[in-house]
Fold this sequence. Notes:
The chain is α+β, with helices and mostly antiparallel strands. It is built from five helices and seven strands.
Amino acid sequence: MYRIGSSADLPFLREMLFEAAFWRPGEERPPLSEELARPDLAKLLAGWGRPGDTAMIAESSGHERLGAAWYRFWSDADHSYGYVRPAVPELAIGVRAEARRLGVGEALLRALLAHASAQGVEEISLSVEFDNPALRLYERLGFRRVGRLGGAWKLVAR
């Protein structure tokens, strides 16, 4: 089940941001509160609820939250890693470790992309590290490589 997120989901979005940032299995992970205080990560959800901020939440049949995908619009002066231009929001996604490889992420992305399209969003961007297995999913869903920044691809989908 998928639903549009609300401001009440912000703590869960923070958890999913942490999952997105520390996706490598078996790698030691720092404390969530410590890492999400880093300026480059903290800004990604700071002031959530501004115009255009949109989230989709994946839930089990028992209403346990499994993952979230969201997008935000940025500016030339203030943006994140996958930024392309002001009219193109940047997407982020996080899925709980136990729900990965079960189709949750793909269904969540499809739901968010359909919602974005219905809202008039023509393109959406993201950033993904070269070795992240999610790259194959993004490309299968129509994202194309438009640049690179450090060890990550910048992708855009229509």
